[in-house]
Automatic annotation (TrEMBL):
<keyword id="KW-0732">Signal</keyword>
<dbReference type="Pfam" id="PF03401">
    <property type="entry name" value="TctC"/>
</dbReference>
<dbReference type="InterPro" id="IPR042100">
    <property type="entry name" value="Bug_dom1"/>
</dbReference>
<comment type="similarity">
    <text>Belongs to the UPF0065 (bug) family.</text>
</comment>
<dbReference type="InterPro" id="IPR005064">
    <property type="entry name" value="BUG"/>
</dbReference>
<protein>
    <submittedName>
        <fullName>Tripartite tricarboxylate transporter substrate binding protein</fullName>
    </submittedName>
</protein>
<feature type="signal peptide">
    <location>
        <begin position="1"/>
        <end position="15"/>
    </location>
</feature>
Length: 315
Protein backbone atom coordinates (compact mmCIF):
# COMPACT_ATOMS: atom_id res chain seq x y z
CA UNK A 1 0.00 0.00 0.00
CA UNK A 2 2.68 2.60 0.87
CA UNK A 3 4.33 2.00 -2.51
CA UNK A 4 1.04 2.43 -4.35
CA UNK A 5 0.35 5.63 -2.45
CA UNK A 6 3.80 6.98 -3.34
CA UNK A 7 3.23 6.33 -7.04
CA UNK A 8 -0.22 7.90 -7.02
CA UNK A 9 0.78 11.01 -5.07
CA UNK A 10 1.71 13.24 -8.06
CA UNK A 11 -1.51 12.54 -9.94
CA UNK A 12 -3.82 14.95 -8.10
CA UNK A 13 -1.52 17.88 -8.99
CA UNK A 14 -1.69 17.05 -12.71
CA UNK A 15 -5.41 16.39 -12.56
CA UNK A 16 -5.86 19.83 -10.99
CA UNK A 17 -4.40 21.63 -14.02
CA UNK A 18 -5.92 23.93 -14.92
CA UNK A 19 -7.81 25.12 -11.87
CA UNK A 20 -8.06 28.75 -12.99
CA UNK A 21 -8.39 30.71 -16.25
CA UNK A 22 -5.52 30.63 -18.76
CA UNK A 23 -4.17 33.83 -20.30
CA UNK A 24 -3.48 33.68 -24.05
CA UNK A 25 -1.35 36.66 -25.07
CA UNK A 26 -1.71 37.96 -28.62
CA UNK A 27 1.24 40.26 -29.44
CA UNK A 28 -0.89 42.29 -31.86
CA UNK A 29 -3.81 44.70 -31.67
CA UNK A 30 -7.38 43.32 -31.77
CA UNK A 31 -8.96 42.60 -35.14
CA UNK A 32 -6.06 41.03 -37.01
CA UNK A 33 -5.58 37.44 -38.15
CA UNK A 34 -3.61 36.36 -35.07
CA UNK A 35 -6.28 37.81 -32.81
CA UNK A 36 -9.09 36.03 -34.67
CA UNK A 37 -7.31 32.68 -34.62
CA UNK A 38 -6.43 33.06 -30.93
CA UNK A 39 -10.02 33.81 -29.98
CA UNK A 40 -11.26 30.77 -31.90
CA UNK A 41 -8.61 28.63 -30.20
CA UNK A 42 -9.46 30.10 -26.81
CA UNK A 43 -13.08 29.07 -27.02
CA UNK A 44 -12.42 25.53 -28.17
CA UNK A 45 -9.45 24.89 -25.85
CA UNK A 46 -11.41 26.24 -22.91
CA UNK A 47 -14.17 23.72 -23.50
CA UNK A 48 -11.70 20.83 -23.22
CA UNK A 49 -9.70 22.27 -20.32
CA UNK A 50 -12.75 23.19 -18.27
CA UNK A 51 -11.40 26.71 -17.73
CA UNK A 52 -11.75 29.84 -19.86
CA UNK A 53 -8.83 30.77 -22.10
CA UNK A 54 -8.82 34.57 -22.11
CA UNK A 55 -7.19 36.51 -24.95
CA UNK A 56 -5.01 39.44 -23.87
CA UNK A 57 -3.80 41.75 -26.66
CA UNK A 58 -0.33 43.19 -26.03
CA UNK A 59 0.79 44.82 -29.32
CA UNK A 60 4.03 46.58 -30.11
CA UNK A 61 7.69 46.06 -30.81
CA UNK A 62 7.14 43.66 -33.69
CA UNK A 63 5.56 41.18 -31.21
CA UNK A 64 8.39 41.60 -28.67
CA UNK A 65 6.30 43.38 -26.01
CA UNK A 66 3.70 40.63 -25.75
CA UNK A 67 6.21 37.83 -26.21
CA UNK A 68 8.48 39.22 -23.49
CA UNK A 69 5.54 39.27 -21.08
CA UNK A 70 5.13 35.52 -21.59
CA UNK A 71 8.88 34.87 -21.39
CA UNK A 72 8.89 36.45 -17.93
CA UNK A 73 5.70 34.74 -16.71
CA UNK A 74 5.64 31.84 -14.29
CA UNK A 75 6.29 28.51 -16.09
CA UNK A 76 3.05 26.97 -14.87
CA UNK A 77 0.96 26.76 -18.06
CA UNK A 78 -1.35 29.63 -17.15
CA UNK A 79 0.22 32.10 -19.60
CA UNK A 80 0.62 31.28 -23.29
CA UNK A 81 1.43 33.25 -26.43
CA UNK A 82 -0.05 32.84 -29.89
CA UNK A 83 3.16 33.26 -31.85
CA UNK A 84 3.66 33.88 -35.54
CA UNK A 85 6.57 33.84 -37.95
CA UNK A 86 7.90 36.91 -36.12
CA UNK A 87 8.86 34.60 -33.25
CA UNK A 88 11.32 32.79 -35.53
CA UNK A 89 12.74 35.86 -37.26
CA UNK A 90 13.10 38.39 -34.43
CA UNK A 91 16.49 36.97 -33.33
CA UNK A 92 17.81 37.78 -36.82
CA UNK A 93 16.13 41.19 -37.02
CA UNK A 94 17.17 42.61 -33.66
CA UNK A 95 20.65 43.10 -32.28
CA UNK A 96 19.40 42.34 -28.79
CA UNK A 97 16.18 40.86 -27.43
CA UNK A 98 15.00 40.99 -23.79
CA UNK A 99 14.94 37.19 -23.75
CA UNK A 100 16.80 34.20 -25.18
CA UNK A 101 14.31 32.80 -27.69
CA UNK A 102 15.76 29.29 -27.53
CA UNK A 103 15.49 29.08 -23.72
CA UNK A 104 12.61 31.40 -22.78
CA UNK A 105 9.83 29.38 -24.42
CA UNK A 106 8.46 25.85 -24.45
CA UNK A 107 6.73 24.87 -27.71
CA UNK A 108 3.18 23.56 -27.33
CA UNK A 109 1.79 23.06 -30.85
CA UNK A 110 1.72 24.36 -34.41
CA UNK A 111 -1.82 25.69 -34.81
CA UNK A 112 -1.72 26.07 -38.57
CA UNK A 113 -0.13 27.51 -41.69
CA UNK A 114 -1.66 29.86 -44.22
CA UNK A 115 -0.81 32.12 -47.13
CA UNK A 116 -0.37 35.81 -46.91
CA UNK A 117 -2.44 37.62 -49.52
CA UNK A 118 -1.39 40.62 -51.55
CA UNK A 119 -4.49 42.82 -51.29
CA UNK A 120 -5.52 46.23 -52.61
CA UNK A 121 -8.68 48.33 -52.65
CA UNK A 122 -11.24 47.32 -55.31
CA UNK A 123 -10.65 50.53 -57.27
CA UNK A 124 -6.87 50.15 -57.32
CA UNK A 125 -5.27 50.05 -60.77
CA UNK A 126 -3.13 47.17 -59.48
CA UNK A 127 -4.90 44.04 -60.69
CA UNK A 128 -1.95 41.69 -61.17
CA UNK A 129 1.54 41.14 -59.80
CA UNK A 130 2.93 42.58 -63.02
CA UNK A 131 0.82 45.72 -62.51
CA UNK A 132 2.44 46.21 -59.11
CA UNK A 133 5.92 45.65 -60.50
CA UNK A 134 5.33 48.08 -63.36
CA UNK A 135 3.90 50.75 -61.05
CA UNK A 136 6.78 50.36 -58.61
CA UNK A 137 9.39 50.64 -61.35
CA UNK A 138 7.65 53.68 -62.81
CA UNK A 139 7.69 55.43 -59.42
CA UNK A 140 10.52 54.01 -57.28
CA UNK A 141 9.86 54.44 -53.56
CA UNK A 142 6.48 56.10 -54.08
CA UNK A 143 4.24 53.05 -53.70
CA UNK A 144 3.91 51.64 -50.19
CA UNK A 145 2.65 48.57 -48.40
CA UNK A 146 1.37 48.13 -44.86
CA UNK A 147 2.26 45.47 -42.32
CA UNK A 148 1.15 44.58 -38.81
CA UNK A 149 4.61 45.44 -37.52
CA UNK A 150 8.36 45.14 -38.20
CA UNK A 151 9.50 41.57 -38.71
CA UNK A 152 6.00 40.17 -39.14
CA UNK A 153 4.98 37.88 -41.98
CA UNK A 154 3.50 40.81 -43.92
CA UNK A 155 6.72 42.79 -43.61
CA UNK A 156 9.01 39.97 -44.66
CA UNK A 157 6.67 38.90 -47.46
CA UNK A 158 6.92 42.45 -48.79
CA UNK A 159 10.69 42.62 -48.41
CA UNK A 160 11.12 39.27 -50.14
CA UNK A 161 8.91 40.56 -52.96
CA UNK A 162 11.04 43.70 -53.29
CA UNK A 163 14.21 41.63 -53.44
CA UNK A 164 13.05 39.04 -55.97
CA UNK A 165 11.05 41.45 -58.15
CA UNK A 166 13.83 44.07 -57.95
CA UNK A 167 11.51 46.94 -57.03
CA UNK A 168 11.53 49.76 -54.47
CA UNK A 169 8.32 49.90 -52.39
CA UNK A 170 8.12 51.65 -49.03
CA UNK A 171 7.20 49.65 -45.92
CA UNK A 172 4.70 51.24 -43.51
CA UNK A 173 4.51 49.33 -40.18
CA UNK A 174 1.50 49.41 -37.84
CA UNK A 175 0.78 48.07 -34.34
CA UNK A 176 -1.29 45.16 -35.60
CA UNK A 177 -3.17 44.04 -38.70
CA UNK A 178 -6.37 45.80 -37.65
CA UNK A 179 -4.96 49.35 -37.85
CA UNK A 180 -3.03 48.48 -41.03
CA UNK A 181 -6.14 47.22 -42.78
CA UNK A 182 -8.10 50.27 -41.63
CA UNK A 183 -5.62 52.55 -43.38
CA UNK A 184 -5.58 50.31 -46.46
CA UNK A 185 -9.37 50.55 -46.63
CA UNK A 186 -9.09 54.31 -46.20
CA UNK A 187 -6.57 54.68 -49.01
CA UNK A 188 -3.65 55.81 -46.83
CA UNK A 189 -1.53 52.90 -48.10
CA UNK A 190 -1.46 51.18 -51.48
CA UNK A 191 -1.27 47.48 -50.65
CA UNK A 192 -0.65 44.87 -47.96
CA UNK A 193 0.75 41.35 -47.85
CA UNK A 194 -1.82 40.49 -45.18
CA UNK A 195 -2.56 37.21 -43.48
CA UNK A 196 -5.51 35.42 -45.02
CA UNK A 197 -7.26 35.35 -41.65
CA UNK A 198 -7.06 39.12 -41.27
CA UNK A 199 -8.51 40.01 -44.68
CA UNK A 200 -11.01 37.18 -45.21
CA UNK A 201 -14.07 39.26 -44.12
CA UNK A 202 -13.01 42.18 -46.32
CA UNK A 203 -12.49 39.94 -49.36
CA UNK A 204 -15.91 38.40 -48.80
CA UNK A 205 -17.58 41.80 -48.52
CA UNK A 206 -15.74 43.16 -51.55
CA UNK A 207 -13.99 45.93 -49.60
CA UNK A 208 -10.61 44.50 -50.63
CA UNK A 209 -9.43 42.61 -53.70
CA UNK A 210 -6.90 39.76 -53.68
CA UNK A 211 -4.11 40.08 -56.24
CA UNK A 212 -1.99 37.02 -55.36
CA UNK A 213 -1.11 34.59 -52.57
CA UNK A 214 2.38 34.13 -51.18
CA UNK A 215 2.48 30.32 -50.96
CA UNK A 216 4.07 27.92 -53.45
CA UNK A 217 0.64 26.55 -54.46
CA UNK A 218 -2.75 28.19 -54.71
CA UNK A 219 -4.85 28.23 -51.56
CA UNK A 220 -7.64 25.71 -51.02
CA UNK A 221 -9.79 28.33 -49.30
CA UNK A 222 -12.97 28.94 -51.33
CA UNK A 223 -12.39 32.70 -51.42
CA UNK A 224 -8.79 32.29 -52.62
CA UNK A 225 -8.83 29.18 -54.80
CA UNK A 226 -8.79 31.19 -58.04
CA UNK A 227 -6.17 33.68 -56.87
CA UNK A 228 -2.76 33.07 -58.50
CA UNK A 229 0.49 32.76 -56.57
CA UNK A 230 3.09 35.52 -56.72
CA UNK A 231 5.39 33.06 -58.46
CA UNK A 232 2.72 32.51 -61.13
CA UNK A 233 2.52 36.28 -61.46
CA UNK A 234 6.10 36.47 -62.62
CA UNK A 235 8.32 36.33 -59.52
CA UNK A 236 9.99 32.90 -59.66
CA UNK A 237 10.84 31.05 -56.43
CA UNK A 238 8.73 33.37 -54.29
CA UNK A 239 7.35 31.57 -51.19
CA UNK A 240 6.35 33.14 -47.86
CA UNK A 241 4.12 31.10 -45.55
CA UNK A 242 2.44 32.52 -42.48
CA UNK A 243 1.92 30.39 -39.38
CA UNK A 244 0.46 30.39 -35.88
CA UNK A 245 1.72 28.40 -32.91
CA UNK A 246 1.37 28.17 -29.14
CA UNK A 247 4.27 28.63 -26.73
CA UNK A 248 4.43 28.52 -22.94
CA UNK A 249 7.24 30.00 -20.83
CA UNK A 250 10.46 27.99 -20.82
CA UNK A 251 10.61 25.45 -18.02
CA UNK A 252 6.89 24.69 -18.02
CA UNK A 253 6.52 21.09 -16.73
CA UNK A 254 6.26 18.47 -19.50
CA UNK A 255 3.01 17.13 -18.04
CA UNK A 256 1.43 20.58 -18.32
CA UNK A 257 2.75 21.02 -21.87
CA UNK A 258 1.28 17.62 -22.76
CA UNK A 259 -2.12 18.64 -21.33
CA UNK A 260 -2.10 21.90 -23.29
CA UNK A 261 -0.99 20.09 -26.45
CA UNK A 262 -3.84 17.60 -26.11
CA UNK A 263 -6.38 20.40 -25.67
CA UNK A 264 -4.95 22.31 -28.63
CA UNK A 265 -5.14 19.21 -30.85
CA UNK A 266 -8.80 18.75 -29.97
CA UNK A 267 -9.46 22.43 -30.53
CA UNK A 268 -8.14 22.54 -34.11
CA UNK A 269 -10.22 19.49 -35.01
CA UNK A 270 -13.54 20.93 -33.83
CA UNK A 271 -16.09 21.78 -36.49
CA UNK A 272 -16.18 25.42 -35.38
CA UNK A 273 -12.42 25.90 -35.68
CA UNK A 274 -12.07 23.95 -38.92
CA UNK A 275 -14.87 25.99 -40.49
CA UNK A 276 -13.07 29.23 -39.64
CA UNK A 277 -9.76 27.75 -40.80
CA UNK A 278 -11.26 26.75 -44.15
CA UNK A 279 -12.71 30.21 -44.71
CA UNK A 280 -9.37 31.83 -44.01
CA UNK A 281 -7.10 29.44 -45.91
CA UNK A 282 -5.50 28.00 -42.79
CA UNK A 283 -4.06 24.50 -43.12
CA UNK A 284 -4.78 23.08 -39.66
CA UNK A 285 -1.74 22.00 -37.69
CA UNK A 286 -1.27 19.61 -34.80
CA UNK A 287 1.59 17.31 -33.89
CA UNK A 288 3.84 17.17 -30.86
CA UNK A 289 5.64 19.98 -29.06
CA UNK A 290 8.93 18.53 -30.31
CA UNK A 291 7.76 18.65 -33.94
CA UNK A 292 6.70 22.27 -33.52
CA UNK A 293 10.08 23.11 -32.02
CA UNK A 294 11.89 21.62 -35.01
CA UNK A 295 9.60 23.46 -37.44
CA UNK A 296 10.30 26.81 -35.80
CA UNK A 297 14.05 26.15 -35.85
CA UNK A 298 13.85 25.46 -39.59
CA UNK A 299 11.86 28.66 -40.17
CA UNK A 300 14.40 30.65 -38.17
CA UNK A 301 17.28 29.33 -40.27
CA UNK A 302 15.45 29.92 -43.58
CA UNK A 303 14.43 33.50 -42.86
CA UNK A 304 17.79 34.35 -41.29
CA UNK A 305 19.35 33.88 -44.72
CA UNK A 306 16.70 36.06 -46.39
CA UNK A 307 17.09 38.82 -43.80
CA UNK A 308 20.87 38.83 -44.15
CA UNK A 309 20.81 38.81 -47.94
CA UNK A 310 18.23 41.61 -48.08
CA UNK A 311 20.02 43.56 -45.34
CA UNK A 312 16.77 43.94 -43.39
CA UNK A 313 17.09 45.63 -39.99
CA UNK A 314 14.52 47.12 -37.64
CA UNK A 315 16.73 48.49 -34.84
Amino acid sequence: MPLLMAVAAPLPALAAFPDKPIRLVVPFAPGGGTDLIARAMGVTMGEDLGQPVLVDNKPGGGTIIGTDLVAKSAPDGYTLVMATMAHAVNPSLHKKLPFDTDKAFSPVMLVGRSPNVLVVKPDSPIKTVQDLIAAAKARPGKLNYASQGPGTSAHLAGELFKKLAKVDITHVPYRGAGPAITDLLGGQVDAMFATAAAVAPHLESGKLRAVAVTTAQRSQAPALSKVPTIAEGGVPNYVADSWYGLFAPGGTPPAVIARLNAAAKKAVQTEAFRKRAEQEGLAVGGGTPEEFGRYVKGESERWSKVIKEANITVD
